[in-house]
Description:
By secondary structure, the chain is an alpha+beta fold. It has helices at 13-22, 39-45, 65-75, 88-107, 109-117, 121-145, 159-168, 182-192, 195-203, and strands at residues 2-6, 26-30, 53-55, 61-63. The radius of gyration is 17 Å and the shape is globular. The model has no long low-confidence stretch (mean pLDDT 97).
Amino acid sequence: MMKFYFSTATCSTACHIALEELGLEYTPIEVSWKRDQNVAELNKVNPLGAVPVLITKQGKTLTQNAAILEYLADQNPTAKLLAEKDSFERNQTMSWVAFVASDLQKAFSPFFQSKEMADTESAQNQIKEFAAKKIHSLLDYIEQNLVGKDYIIGNHFTIADAYLFTILGWTKWVKISIVGHKNITSYMKRVFERPAVQNVLKKENLTDYLP
């Protein structure tokens, strides 16, 4: 059985959602730095000390959301969380996965690391203001791409939605409102209500996850 290392309220929630949506069997291993829970074990399987980490049935180790999400989707192709290989729809889906990983998720980093980036409170606030402007521009881009769609690729839930939903939820924590983005607001509610998503949010104690 696969082993899945995750930590509540991190980007690993995306892979957790995918696992539940796909109906795959796995052993969840929660990592908590505050409680020193499974931290040493995580460091053994990933020297970078980061989640998510997936140990396959063959005992091989995968890290990084994009790689894990693609791997998981291919374990149950009938669920159609990722289109078949060599199809343009698959490339589109992976393009959105890459966007979330390289653009959207990283845009939040200054909010969580401002104290490491600057010594004074005023400088830290300037960093956060810069990050907020970037996030707002990305929200505008996502809003436009959700026009006439239930999900980011179209009318079918994919691994890109598992990741996008997870990171968009962080807007609540950094106090960036999405109220003005009607498409994003309805999208978040739509994904939130999916049974598999609800299962994960309950397991991770994130039932109030909607921004």
